[in-house]
Specification:
Largest sheet: 5 strands, parallel
CATH class of the largest domain: Alpha Beta
Radius of gyration: 30 Å
CATH topology of the largest domain: FAD/NAD(P)-binding domain
Structural class: alpha/beta
Number of strands: 21
Shape: globular
Number of domains: 4
Length: about 600
């Protein structure tokens, strides 16, 4: 049992209750250790405002706020962390999780002020005496991460196996691989802001981590009704801004999307998505083109209760996804999985129906409450150099379409492809396979104006083309196709010094003294694609606003100056599948608004 003094001594502190508190304005201190966790520093230029510091803070001591002079842009939210030192416990988890290594802590620990509001401040925005100090807490080393900086390796067929077949190359994640890759996500949301469809990327990745793939599929379909397709061929702009990629490799967001779609069987979609009974609004929408934009519009309009009919000039749906992308990148059965679900909602597709020939735009206007067009870019563009009129000069888009249609295409022993984009790589790799099958060897050269660093094709396409024995020769401009005795013998090229001028306008410059000839029996042009808008008759064009380039002008809901007529996809923005999908979704909302206003 304690003494009586032990009980009474705490009460002796009450004798100080009437004393006036004293604040020492200039406390005497010692210099802290080099690794002391003092006040925060932040390199505002390195910081991207991802908010991982805010998310990890257990004391809610960090808020992301706008800072004057910092604008929102791709890969940067425009926000910066504000620290509340009334809440901060100096645990430094915010520094340890920082994906750009912009955030650190000085070893300064004394800050004197009578205004409590100054202790809520944005590091880096107001210069402090400790900003120049090197000492303090930083992420310990390159090997110290709260997330794995390296991607989970995606399995794919080796070049030796794939180079003469059209079997899908990428094999997809296993469950263990997908969960491990999902664990790398810091849920910052920078990816969602950059995605043209603004998909709920952190949410569906979290569903993978929780092994709840039903929930993951629901999240995908909120903004993207073509997940199998996008999980394979999306241009994945989201990955280019992934915050984890600033100090490691970006998340495999595209492959994780594919994983969710692959694991959910087609016959379970209706049960999982539970679309329910949809009230029929008694209104009809005509859609021209069964590409990604038209299919997306049809999907969302169907969920709103509209009867949708798609008019497709080709024998099957998919647009350039089916007739422009080789099967080794996008297998037809996976393409059909997405399309068939949209059809199951009641969408009708009239195949081999060319608007302007089999049915006119005027008829669609008369028979339907609104019309949406997403006819894509199916016409190839020519360099118009001497020799392009020769019978053995082809357009890449035409050949790729014929391959998809099962037609036999011409395959010479020596072929040159002109172009440096994904379509150029697709035809190059397709030709390489067909040459291997026919001649037992590959002799195809792809050449582009752009240097390899500037080539618009995805890096993986360039690497894989070389693995499949194609020759990639960037940095050369076509001069003429050499023809002898009515036969093509080669392509003459000049060295390209630059493609764009100082204002980034297309204005190539060449060294005409530096020439070479690529041997060829056949030439394929792949320098871009154009739209065929011949189905829009002159009577409609008179009232249809178009820009100087001949593109249709639309508003934010892709409504044209002809209020009943909506347009989207590659003919408006692109070419890009995910952008086309987003266009279709926004147009569906616009069509709904238009019809409700006029009902």
């Amino acid at each position: 049992m304690g003494k009586i003094n032990d009980i009474l001594s705490p009460f002796t502190a009450w004798k100080h209750v009437v004393n006036k508190p004293v604040t020492i304005k200039d406390p005497v201190s010692r210099i802290a250790a080099d690794r002391y966790r003092g006040f925060h520093k932040n390199n505002l230029e390195k910081c991207i405002g991802c908010g991982t510091c805010e998310s990890i803070c257990q004391n809610a001591a960090i808020d992301m706020v706008p800072v004057e002079g910092i604008e929102t842009k791709h890969g940067d939210s425009g926000l910066r962390p504000r620290i509340d030192y009334g809440r901060c416990c100096w645990c430094a988890l915010c520094v340890d999780i920082c994906t750009t290594n912009s955030l650190s802590m000085s070893n300064e620990y004394i800050w004197i002020d009578e205004d409590p509001e100054v202790f809520r401040f944005v590091p880096g925005a107001e210069k402090k005496s400790w900003d120049t100090r090197q000492a303090g807490w930083q992420k310990p080393s390159d090997n110290y991460e709260l997330y794995d900086p390296q991607r989970v390796k995606m399995g794919e067929l080796s070049p030796e196996i794939r180079h003469d077949s059209f079997v899908e190359i990428v094999q997809g994640f296993s469950k263990e691989q997908a969960i491990a890759e999902a664990d790398r996500c810091v849920e910052c949301g920078i990816c969602t802001a950059t995605c043209p469809a603004h998909m709920g990327i952190p949410e569906y990745i979290k569903a993978i981590r929780n092994d709840n793939l039903d929930q993951g599929l629901k999240i995908l379909y909120e903004t993207n009704p073509l997940p199998e397709i996008c999980g394979r061929i999306c241009t994945h702009k989201c990955e280019t801004v992934c915050s984890v990629g600033h100090h490691g490799e970006p998340l495999s967001i595209r492959w994780l999307k594919r994983y969710i779609a692959d694991q959910n069987p087609a016959d379970k979609y209706k049960e999982i998505l539970n679309q329910g009974n949809i009230d029929d609004k008694g209104k009809k929408i005509a859609i021209i083109g069964a590409g990604p934009s038209g299919l997306s519009a049809a999907y969302y309009l169907s969920l709103m209760g509209y009867s949708c009919t798609i008019f497709e000039k080709l024998p099957q749906a998919g647009g350039m996804m089916r007739y422009g992308i080789p099967e080794y990148r996008l297998p037809y059965d996976q393409l059909d999985k997405d399309i068939n679900y949209i059809l199951s909602l009641g969408v009708d597709i009239k195949y081999n129906a060319t608007v302007g020939k089999d049915i006119t735009l005027e008829q669609l206007h008369n028979d339907y409450d609104a019309v949406y067009t997403g006819t894509g870019l199916h016409s190839g563009r020519s360099t118009r150099i001497h020799g392009t009129e020769h019978k053995n000069v082809y357009q890449a888009v035409d050949l790729l379409r014929d391959v998809s249609l099962g037609k036999e295409i011409p395959v010479a022993e020596k072929i040159v492809v002109i172009g440096g984009g994904n379509v150029a790589m697709d035809i190059t790799r397709t030709i390489a396979r067909l040459q291997k099958q026919k001649y037992g060897k590959v002799q195809v050269i792809a050449t582009s104006l752009e240097s390899e660093e500037e080539m618009p094709a995805d890096r993986e396409e360039i690497v894989e083309a070389r693995e499949e024995m194609a020759i990639i020769e960037p940095g050369w401009g076509p001069v003429e196709i050499i023809i002898e005795n009515d036969k093509i013998t080669g392509l003459k090229v000049n060295k390209c010094l630059s493609v764009f001028d100082e204002e980034r306008r297309f204005n190539p410059k060449f060294d005409k003294e530096n020439q070479k000839i690529f041997p060829a029996d056949m030439v394929i042009e792949s320098i871009g694609q154009g739209a065929d808008l011949s189905y829009i008759t002159e009577s409609f064009k008179e009232n249809l606003e178009m820009d100087q380039r001949g593109r249709i002008i639309v508003d934010k809901h892709f409504q044209t100056s002809l209020k009943w007529f909506f347009a989207g996809g590659d003919i408006i923005q692109g070419p890009d599948v995910i952008t086309s999908i987003a266009n279709g979704h926004k147009a569906a909302i616009g069509i709904d608004k238009f019809i409700n206003r006029n009902s």
